[in-house]
């Protein structure tokens, strides 16, 4: 039996942070809560013992610095992110038609890509996040939208 590489826990902690950031943005949108308050709630009340489960609403092992960075970036650049997202969606699918969690996921992903996260990493990470929240066609939609954004930016495309 081989030991997991040292990169595995870090990758997992970053993926968990991205899932939590998606939830935090969703919470801000649904409740109108201040993003800083939501970030602090996630850090104080959801980041608890590593034995706690994500399914129970906890974020054990999350990279808290990344969580804060993603949420703050998405809120700060929301107008630019939303404008970009609107341009990526089909005309027959306005942004307010998106599931609110899906909208939050796309905002965090596009925000990270705008901030310099390489397209291949962003697409892979946010497909994992999408599979954590959705079944059916939603992950395919995430892949298509992020791939389209990456191509527009001249970045790498996803591996489909």
From TrEMBL:
The keyword Kinase does not apply. GO terms for cellular component: cytosol. This is Transcription antitermination protein NusB. GO terms for molecular function: RNA binding. GO terms for biological process: DNA-templated transcription termination; transcription antitermination. Involved in transcription antitermination. Required for transcription of ribosomal RNA (rRNA) genes. Binds specifically to the boxA antiterminator sequence of the ribosomal RNA (rrn) operons. Belongs to the NusB family. It comes from Bombella intestini. Keywords: RNA-binding, Transcription, Transcription antitermination, Transcription regulation. Residues 16-151 form the NusB/RsmB/TIM44 domain.
């Amino acid at each position: 039996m081989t030991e997991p590489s040292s990169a595995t826990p870090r990758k997992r902690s970053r993926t968990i942070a991205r899932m939590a950031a998606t939830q935090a943005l969703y919470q801000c949108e649904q409740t109108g809560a201040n993003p800083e308050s939501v970030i602090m709630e996630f850090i104080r009340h959801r980041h608890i013992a590593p034995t706690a489960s994500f399914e129970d609403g906890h974020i054990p092992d999350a990279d808290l610095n990344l969580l804060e960075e993603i949420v703050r970036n998405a809120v700060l650049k929301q107008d630019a992110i939303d404008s970009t997202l609107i341009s990526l969606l089909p005309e027959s699918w306005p942004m307010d038609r998106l599931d609110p969690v899906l909208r939050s996921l796309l905002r965090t992903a596009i925000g990270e890509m705008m901030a310099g996260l390489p397209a291949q990493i962003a697409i892979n990470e946010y497909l994992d996040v999408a599979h954590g929240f959705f079944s059916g066609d939603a992950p395919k939609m995430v892949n298509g939208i992020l791939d389209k954004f990456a191509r527009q930016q001249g970045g790498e495309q996803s591996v489909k």
